[in-house]
Amino acid sequence: MYEEDRRVRAFILDTSVIIHDPTCFDKFEDNDVIIPFVVVMELDRQRKEDGYVGAQARIAIRFLEKLRESNPDMLHCPLSTGGQLSVFGATKYLLESVNKRYTVNDNLIIELALQFKDVNDAAYEKIALVSKDMGMRILGASLGIITENYESDLVIPERLWSGVFSEQYLSVEIPVISHLKSHNKIEAAAFNAMTIGDKMLGNQQYAIVKDNILGEKPRTKIVKNSHGIVEAINDEIEVFGIKGNNARQRMALDALYDPRVNLMLITGASGTGKTLLALAAGLAQTWNPKGDQYLRYSQIVGIKPIVPVGNDIGFLPGSKDSKLQAWLQPYFDNLEFIAETGKLREGVISKQSFGEWLIQEGVIALDAMTYLRGRSITKSWIILDEVQNLSPQQIKTALTRAGAGSKVICLADTTQIDAPYLDNESCGAAHILRVFGGKDMFSHVELNRSERSYLAGLAAQLL
Questions:
Q1: Is residue 213 domain-shared with residue 195, that is, in the same domain?
Q2: C-alpha distances in angstroms, 457 versus 250, 269, 290, 309, 460?
Q3: Which residues, in sequence order, are CB contacts of 187 under 8 Å at separation 6+?
Q4: Contact present, 445 and 255 (Cβ < 8 Å)
Q5: pLDDT of residue 364
Q6: Which residues, in sequence order, are bridge partners of residue 250?
Q7: Could you tell me if 188 and 249 lie in one domain?
Q8: How far is the C-alpha of 334 from the C-alpha of 138, rounded, in Å?
Q9: DSSP classification of residue 462
Q10: Second label for 214, Cα 20 to 30 Å away, from 56, 105, 189, 376?
């Protein structure tokens, strides 16, 4: 069936790979891509769905249909990389019996992978089943099939760019902090020439610098290397009574107030203050109770993927806004905290929460990822929450919605990935760091200390 002189590798794709990346067909170099026919059946069913999965399936089906136009039998379809794509296993017998014999399509995909391996083992250097589904990879391996994760968009977390200098302190020669205290900034080249050892502060990175004066307590300063200048940040920023409780939070507030930063990623475990800082800084720049200052943004737009934790509670009654409130309750909780801390309840109807009042006044709009496609959001403070549960394709969809004058703040806790086919090597947070790390308009701060409560911090650390 397959050309015996082509000693290349064959990759059999599971549906999860194609939904994760519908452009994956051209990412296997000059090797052969094999699509089990049941995968095409699943894509055909999914393309009729609303939302993200349906959109991804439609992209893939359109690509396969274009190949079919010049290759009616769907065998050895040439790919742009030099490889070939074939649909395998589409026999009348299997088509008639698929619904009778298989309760789970995964089982048929694995059987077809075994059949393909038996028939074509001698023709290929390697035959592998590629899946984003860990269970399928384990099951396939137990049956003697080489199984692999889809690696085109994987990143190694340890090699990811970080917006904060990796060690606790960056030691510098004695004159540096004195210069920063008097001039507040220094050229990056001169600063890096005065760091101790071979340590250097990269572009768009924060650090706590420390000098050691013999017999005296070391002096420290929080700095940021931005646009070729190392600046001492304003670590006394206070917004509605909320200040940075630790150095990382003060770094985050600095980036949140920096108009040169259009995209920011705040990572950290539960309780470290990601949502609170993003909302407080955004509210201060979109809503002015006294009306006596210029506002940089017209509204806050809070967006969150709807990925349930544990068993889904099913359909919720009411309008879209009332349904979304259950998913977006963390925003309301944090806004109540901001209202109490900043004494902001004046003018709010007593029966309303502060968050509900801000929505009614048009200061805040809350939405789900499902409704983003086709939008253009201008001059807005956009909070994109739980990006660890978004795929690279979803991140692209979200970030390309940002119009002129908007700033996007992405929040992520990579210890809480609930999407079934994502991990900390392929999730949206890793993708953002891989693509934007070190660019002038991007900033990243990882919050590493829980400030919610002693219990919350201990639970995040131990459980």
A1: yes
A2: 19, 9, 36, 20, 5
A3: 228, 229, 230
A4: yes
A5: 93
A6: none
A7: no
A8: 41
A9: H
A10: 189
Contact call for residues 271 and 456 (beta carbons, < 8 A): yes
Q: Are residues 116 and 160 in the same domain?
A: no
Q: What is the pTM of this model?
A: 0.82
Order of strands across the sheet with 380-384? 364-368, 299-304, 380-384, 407-412, 263-268, 442-447
Q: How far apart are CA 394 and CA 53, in angstroms?
A: 10
Residues in the chain with pLDDT values less than 70 = 1-7, 90-104, 155-158, 213-216, 291-293, 306-327, 370-371, 453-463
CA distances from 159 to 199, 224, 289, 390 (A): 17, 21, 44, 20
46/170 same-domain check: no
Give me the pLDDT at residue 104, please: 67
26 contacts 80 by C-beta, under 8 angstroms: yes
- Domain shared by 252 and 116, yes or no: no
> For residue 145, how far is the Cα from the chain centroid?
31
Tokens of 412: 């992520």
Same domain membership, residue 185 and residue 77: no
- Mind listing the pLDDT tens digit for each residue in 29-40? 999 999 999 899
The SS3 assignment for 459 reads: helix
Residue pLDDT, tens place only, 112-140:
999 999 999 988 999 999 999 988 999 99
Q: What is the Cα–Cα distance from 33 to 10, expressed in whole angstroms? A: 6
CB 180 within 8 A of CB 221: yes
Which positions ≥6 away from 416 have C-beta within 8 Å? Answer: 270, 388
Half-sphere exposure of 53 (CA within 13 A, CB side): 13
Closest C-alpha among 97, 95, 90, 105 to residue 35: 90
What residue spans of 343-453 are helical by DSSP H?
Answer: 354-360, 392-399, 428-436
- Measured CA to CA in angstroms, residue 217 lies from 105, 175, 220 at distances of 66, 15, 10
**Which residues are CB-contacts of 7 (< 8 A; sequence separation ≥ 6)?**
124, 125
Whether residue 256 is found in the same domain as residue 293: yes
CA dist., res. 279 & res. 363, Å (int):
12
Residues 44, 383: Cα–Cα separation, whole Å: 34
In a domain, 260, yes or no: yes
Looking at the structure, tell me whether residues 175 and 280 fall in a common domain. no
Residue pointed to by tokens 């203050």: 273
* pLDDT for 309: 42
C-alpha gyration radius of the chain: 26
In the numeric block, the tokens 């200061």 are attached to 363
